[in-house]
Design goal:
InterPro entries: ArgE/DapE (IPR010182), Bact_exopeptidase_dim_dom (IPR036264), Peptidase_M20 (IPR002933), Peptidase_M20_dimer (IPR011650), Peptidase_M20A (IPR050072). The protein is 33% helix and 24% strand. By secondary structure, the protein is an alpha/beta fold.
């Protein structure tokens, strides 16, 4: 039956390409959240034709949801002939902005040199198409399977996933007994299994000053200069300390095995949308958003305390320094055990496909596994997909057609292993 399953995948080579192209042509750019509804409806219709029961779930009340930009998710379930385990493939449908530097239309799905080009091909509409094709091939080959297969297309992963997987997890849609195993086709490469991710703490630091006329700055107190002192302290004290820390987690690329801090944004003084010449004011407020990625060996409390200690020291030592700090997002590191059922099933399928054991890695950034673990309390979850991680969010993003087909072989064999308990089709 192994050859029958392989043939069922190979017979769908053109279909996985066409499906990837169709998904890319929905410009589901986040922010603001364009075309979520039409894309979710397209996926629902496609899966309904394959025998799935489908639902469109609007994340009302969640961050980002508005009447103009509704957060629309799709979830589909196909029951087998008898009760059993459930395998769920979850992919996000939102993509980042196209940006500049493209040699092709980023929303056309151009085929060139055995690759499909376009925003979201790699991250991660190619992975979504691959999972759909893999499930179709499995269903054709094993029509009497026991258990259930679920596929979801969710929103807002690029901005935290709260209106996507986070919203669905609150409704129990990523918890036992409904779901047993989850595979997220993020672009971590076709022969690697991603067990989890580093932790993240986003925060906004605000320094305060006093407004005055720009020709007499001595009568005011410049909040931007105070923020400059924060940056200087970070450069002198914090960045070297973070770079010296290393984790035993197999984070890729190697630079991400250290703790990191990124300055996401700084805003001070007049807003960027003023017209005409600026007015001569001393800014009384400056805000900085920080993105701190931390390791399994670090605690969130210590991560926060390290930053607050610098700010408190500046308040003691720098005349007029005042600040406020606000949490924006916090996610603990997560790592699925190597002997978890979904890991062993996908590992066996990778070894059968490529003739070698998989590489086990940890993602430098978070993805929707965080919601499945912390809200759904489901830890049999990994990321596995055909895309190349370094291409995500880049101009001329692409996914290899052969890579999708090979990953579909792996996914289809993993479904077989998880629903039957067999390592690979016999």
């Amino acid at each position: 039956m192994s050859e029958h399953l392989r043939k069922a995948v190979e017979d769908r080579r053109d279909e996985v390409v066409a499906l990837t192209q169709a998904l890319v042509r929905f410009p589901t750019v986040n922010p603001p959240g364009d075309a979520y509804g039409p894309c979710a409806e397209f996926i629902a219709k496609r899966l309904h034709r394959s025998g799935y029961e489908t639902r469109l779930i609007v994340a009302e009340g969640e961050p980002g949801h508005t009447d103009r930009f509704p957060r629309v998710n799709v979830i589909a379930r196909r029951e087998g002939r008898a009760p059993g385990k459930t395998v769920h493939f979850n992919s996000h449908i939102d993509v980042v902005e196209a940006g500049h530097g493209w040699s092709v239309d980023p929303f056309e799905g151009v085929i060139r040199d055995g690759k499909v080009f376009g925003r979201g091909t790699c991250d991660m509409k190619g992975g979504l198409a691959t999972s759909i094709i893999a499930a179709d091939a499995f269903i054709e080959t094993f029509p009497d399977y026991s258990g259930a297969i679920e596929i979801s297309g969710t929103v807002d992963e690029e901005s935290g996933g709260y209106a996507g997987v986070g919203h669905l997890a609150k409704q129990g849609l990523f918890s036992r007994p409904r779901v047993d195993h989850v595979i997220i086709p993020e672009p971590l490469n076709k022969d690697r299994i991603c067990l989890g991710h580093r932790g993240v703490w986003w925060a906004e630091i605000e320094t305060h000053g006093r407004i005055a006329h720009g020709s007499m700055p001595f009568l005011g107190d410049c909040a931007v200069r105070h923020m400059g002192a924060v940056l200087a302290a970070f450069e002198h004290d914090l960045f070297p300390a973070l770079a010296a820390r290393r984790t035993d987690m197999r984070v890729v690329p190697d630079g991400a095995r250290a703790s990191t801090l990124n300055i996401n944004a700084i805003h001070g003084g007049q807003t960027d949308d003023h017209t005409g010449l600026p007015s001569p004011n001393v800014p009384d407020r400056c805000a900085m958003t920080i993105d701190r990625r931390f390791l399994l060996e670090e605690s969130l409390d210590d991560v926060k305390a390290e930053v607050v200690a610098i700010l408190d020291r500046l308040r003691r030592e720098r005349p007029g320094f005042a600040y406020a700090i606000r949490d924006v997002m916090e996610v603990l590191p997560t790592m699925t055990e190597r002997d978890a059922p979904v890991v062993t099933a996908v590992a066996a399928a990778i070894e059968a496909e490529f003739g070698r054991a998989p590489d086990y890695v940890i993602s430098p950034g978070t993805y929707d596994q965080k919601h499945i673990a912390r809200i759904g309390h489901l830890h049999d979850c990994i990321a596995y997909g055909p895309g190349i991680l370094d291409l995500a969010h880049q101009p001329d993003e692409w996914i290899g057609i052969d890579d999708m087909v090979q990953s579909a072989h792996v996914m289809a064999a993993a479904i077989h292993g998880l629903l039957t308990g067999a390592a690979e089709p016999a």
